[in-house]
Design goal:
- The protein is 39% helix and 19% strand.
- The protein is of the alpha/beta class.
- The strands form 2 sheets. The protein has an 8-stranded mixed beta sheet, sandwiched between helices.
- Strand 1, helix 2 and strand 2 form a beta-alpha-beta unit.
- The chain is globular and about 65 Å long.
- The mean pLDDT is 94.
Length: 284
C-alpha cells in the first residue's frame, strides 16, 4: 500500500486505511483547519492553509466519496483563509463551520447558518469588564466569531498562566448565559452547547452513507470527533472503519488516541498527497 513513511500504528487504523483503499467511492476524509491544514500562528486572523494543502485536497477529493473541513471557525472564514472556493477538484467540498452549526457547500458557494444563540450577545457585552478585572485585557485577544467568542492567551507574557487564570471566570460567564467553554491550545471559546465536531462528523457520515472515514485534528476540540469515529468503528450493527490522525504532539490527550501521529500540517499535506497516489495506483 505504498512506501510512505507515515503508516497507521494500530490495527483499527490499518483497517480504516484498508477500507478507504478498498472502496474509495464510499470514503469520507474529514479534517480540522487550524493546526491541521493550517499552521498555528500568533494572530488567528493571519492563519492560512499550509502551502500545498489545497493542491493535496484537490488531488484527493475526486478519488473519494467526500471531503469535509470541520472547524470551530465560521464557515466563510475557513473557506476564505483556506482558499477553497472555485478550486478545480473541490467541486463537492463541504465546510462545516462553528462545529457544524454552519455549512458551506462548494457546489452552491452558499453558507447556511442558524441565528446566533442569545447568550453570545450577553457574553460579548460582559467580556471586556471580566478581562479588565482579571488584569489580562491588554494581554489577551478576543475573536468574535458571531456564533461564538474566543479568548486567546498566546500573546500574554505567560500564555499558560493567563489561560489557567481565565478558565474559571470565563466558565462562570458562559454558564450564566447558557453557553459552555471549549478549551484549546491557549484559547478558551465560549459557545452554545449541543454542537461539537463529533455531532457534525456523525451527521455527515450518515447523510452521505460513508462506509469508511478518515479524521485529522490537532486540538482538544477534536476529541469529540475522535470519539465519534471510535463509536462508528464499534457499531455492531453497521461498523464504519476509521483512521484517526493527529497533527502535532502538543495535545497528548489526542495523540494518545490517534492511529497515526504526524509532525504537523506539512506532514498532513504529504499524507493527503500520498493517499491520493495510493488511490490512483489502486484504480490503475
Amino acid at each position: 500500500m505504498g512506501s510512505h513513511p507515515y503508516r497507521p500504528t494500530t490495527p483499527a487504523g490499518l483497517r480504516g486505511l484498508e477500507a478507504v483503499l478498498a472502496r474509495p467511492e464510499k470514503a469520507l476524509v474529514a479534517l480540522d483547519f487550524d493546526g491541521t491544514l493550517a499552521d498555528i500562528v500568533p494572530d488567528p486572523e493571519r492563519a492560512r492553509a499550509h502551502p500545498g494543502a489545497v493542491e493535496a485536497l484537490a488531488a484527493l477529493a475526486p478519488r473519494v466519496g467526500a471531503v469535509a473541513v470541520i472547524t470551530g471557525r465560521p464557515a466563510d472564514v475557513a473557506v476564505r483563509y483556506g482558499g477553497f472556493a472555485g478550486v478545480a477538484g473541490l467541486d463537492h467540498l463541504v465546510v462545516l463551520g462553528h462545529y457544524g452549526a454552519e455549512r458551506w457547500d462548494a457546489a452552491t458557494g452558499e453558507v447556511r447558518a442558524p441565528d446566533p444563540h442569545p447568550g453570545i450577545a450577553a457574553v460579548r457585552a460582559g467580556l471586556p469588564a471580566l478581562l479588565e478585572k482579571s488584569g489580562l485585557r491588554e494581554e489577551t485577544w478576543t475573536e468574535d466569531k458571531g456564533h461564538a467568542i474566543a479568548v486567546h492567551t498566546r500573546r500574554a507574557a505567560d500564555p499558560q498562566a493567563a489561560f489557567e487564570a481565565l478558565r474559571g471566570p470565563l466558565g462562570e460567564l458562559a454558564a450564566a448565559h447558557g453557553l459552555i467553554v471549549e478549551p484549546g491550545r491557549l484559547v478558551l471559546e465560549l459557545r452554545p452547547p449541543g454542537m461539537d465536531k463529533g455531532v457534525a462528523l456523525t451527521g455527515y457520515v450518515h447523510e452521505i452513507g460513508a462506509a469508511s472515514v478518515v479524521y485529522a485534528g490537532d486540538d482538544l476540540g477534536d476529541l469529540a470527533a475522535y470519539a465519534a469515529v471510535e463509536r462508528l468503528r464499534e457499531d455492531e450493527a453497521n461498523p464504519v472503519p476509521g483512521l484517526l490522525i493527529c497533527s502535532g504532539t502538543e495535545v497528548p490527550e489526542l495523540a494518545a488516541r490517534a492511529d497515526l501521529t504526524l509532525p504537523g500540517p506539512g506532514a498532513v499535506v504529504d499524507q493527503l498527497h500520498d493517499l491520493a497516489r495510493q488511490l490512483a495506483a489502486h484504480a490503475g
